[in-house]
Write a structure and sequence with these properties.
- It is a single chain.
- The protein is an all-alpha fold and 498 residues long.
- It has helices at 8-21, 27-52, 78-101, 109-125, 129-148, 153-184, 195-198, 200-217, 225-232, 235-259, 268-285, 292-313, 316-347, 358-361, 363-377, 383-397, 401-426, 451-469, 472-486, 489-496; strands spanning 58-61, 73-76, 434-435, 441-443.
- It is a multi-pass membrane protein.
- Keywords: Cell membrane, Membrane, Transmembrane, Transmembrane helix.
- This is Monovalent cation/H+ antiporter subunit D family protein.
Length: 498
């Protein structure tokens, strides 16, 4: 794989977005180009994973500014390849769901989704801090548009909150990059290797970037924006956001803590505290919620905490478990949000006291929800069981018994929340009514959820079964990715081209 091919995951979606903007509005063309562009990225990600499976790193410098410390460096290893693959798959499925719900009816929806995806792919492949900032902003700008595109007072209010928090985080991010450049004279990640572990000033500068990523990942105590924004987003947008926005924050935390801090144990307690608080606060926040989507949104905060245990422990076993958890969660959370979205689109509400009996009227949706929900709670044989077991095992191996106990208890509370949704929406009375946007009962007619709304959830939930029953290949790939984080020699060599 030539180094310049690393730019294609960014270039292809951007080109497709430009074509859609400047051609006549055609749903067929939008569906074809947007899904084909991300399908191409999925293939490129698979090729990159095959080329880096031996632990090697592929890099490419696209600028001649290396002497002034501002290269445009791309680098791909097993970690970034895995993230490319799972993200591209998620975007394809969520776009299919968006066309089924009608969320993609606006001619700007598909182009904005493509630009956002290009920003995410770029964030996974860049190897310098300034371009990471650029790609994060490329990701965020269309996300504001997608959030408010469908209109409505609540969505606009959610968009304002999301925009304000994102701008604050971006300002902190940029300040951190400025400090790093002022202290080190470079933003190249390879040249910054180990800089924060040997210099308190660099540690402070790097911490600003990590705080900004903590906001974007919705870690406690900077998590409040997520449930408010996701609750009012269009169903397809919420599913799309769940696998993209927070995961970029988590990815950058993994990467920076490995490269700049080299997993310095003196900062591990801060990372572990954020992880455990996120797990507990997220799962408790879901207890009092009454809608499917609100419960799922709070659980997203809780699940981010599981992932962050990886860098907190910073062993190969823990990092591999954390990366496995990221991949599992991207697919399962989107499947659950698509289930909730299919219900909302059909019946006009996600309130549990207004639903019921879906197991009879939508058995495939019920099956997809059950698989994804049990996986989220960590039940065998789904991928969530493997992910949680790996996290608990990593914690016990490092004698961090508190993390292991919290992980198990939060898993049990997650199971109770999933049972609550199941009993309210899928079991019980028939719930034969539809509801308008003001929450008023508008019809007593029983509606059937369209197969096109159910299929995306079934596809994503099936991957949880596949990665649960046949977990070994993915576990092996995540171990390779984790080894590249605990030993950054190959990454530094490739990025600095020495």
């Amino acid at each position: 794989m030539n180094g310049w091919l690393l730019t294609l995951p960014v270039a292809v979606p951007l080109f497709a977005a430009a074509v859609l903007v400047f051609t006549p509005n055609s749903v067929a063309l939008q569906r074809l180009l947007s899904i084909a562009a991300n399908g191409a990225v999925l293939v490129l990600g698979a090729v990159l994973l095959a080329r880096t499976y031996d632990g090697s790193v592929i890099s490419e410098n696209l600028s001649g500014w290396t002497q002034v410390g501002i290269p445009i460096m791309f680098a791909g290893d097993a970690f970034s390849a895995l993230m490319l693959c799972v993200t591209a798959l998620l975007v394809m499925v969520c776009l299919g769901f968006a066309f089924a719900t009608g969320d993609a009816a606006h001619r700007l929806f598909a182009p904005m989704a493509l630009v956002m995806a290009a920003g995410v792919y770029g964030a996974y492949l860049t190897a310098d801090l300034f371009n990471l900032f650029v790609f994060v902003e490329v990701m965020l700008a269309p996300s504001y548009v997608l959030l408010v595109l469908a209109g409505g007072r609540k969505r606009v209010a959610a968009g304002r909150l999301y925009l304000t928090v994102s701008l604050l985080a971006s300002t902190i991010f940029l300040a951190g990059i400025g400090l790093v450049y002022g202290l080190a004279g470079t933003v190249n990640l390879g040249q910054l290797a180990g800089s924060a572990s040997g210099s308190p000033a660099m540690a402070v500068a790097g911490s600003l970037i990590l705080i900004a990523m903590g906001v974007k990942a919705a870690l406690v105590p900077v998590h409040g924006w997520l449930p408010r924004a996701y609750l009012h987003a269009a169903p397809a947008v919420a599913a799309l956001f769940s696998g993209l926005l927070t995961k970029v924050g988590v990815y950058v935390i993994f990467r920076l803590y490995a490269v700049m801090y080299e997993g310095d144990p003196q900062y591990a307690w801060v990372v572990m505290l954020a992880a455990l608080l996120s797990m507990v606060v997220g799962v408790l926040g879901a207890v009092g919620e009454k809608t499917m989507r609100a419960i799922l949104a709070f659980h997203m905060i809780s699940q981010i905490g599981y992932m962050i245990i990886g860098p907190a422990l910073f062993t190969t076993v823990a990092l591999a478990a954390g990366i496995f958890y990221i991949i599992h969660h991207v697919l399962v959370k989107a499947a659950l949000l698509i289930c909730a979205g299919a219900v909302e689109v059909t019946y006009g509400t996600g309130r549990l006291d207004r639903l019921g009996g879906l197991v009879n009227r939508a058995p495939w949706l019920a099956a997809a929800f059950m698989v994804a929900a049990l996986s989220l709670a960590g039940m065998p044989p789904m991928s969530g069981f493997i992910a949680k077991l790996a996290i608990v095992r990593a914690a016990i191996l490092e004698a961090h018994y508190l993390a292991a106990v919290v992980a198990v208890l939060v898993g049990l509370l997650t199971l109770l929340s999933m049972i609550k949704i199941w009993n309210g929406a899928f079991w019980g009375h028939n719930g034969e009514a539809t509801w308008d946007e003001e929450g008023e009962r508008s019809s007593a007619t029983t509606r059937v959820i369209k197969p096109s709304l159910v299929a995306p959830a079934v596809v994503l939930a099936s991957f949880s079964l596949i990665f649960g029953i046949g977990a070994e290949p993915l576990l092996a790939a995540t171990t390779v990715a984790a080894e590249g984080l605990t030993d950054i020699t190959a990454y530094v060599t490739a990025v600095t081209m020495r």
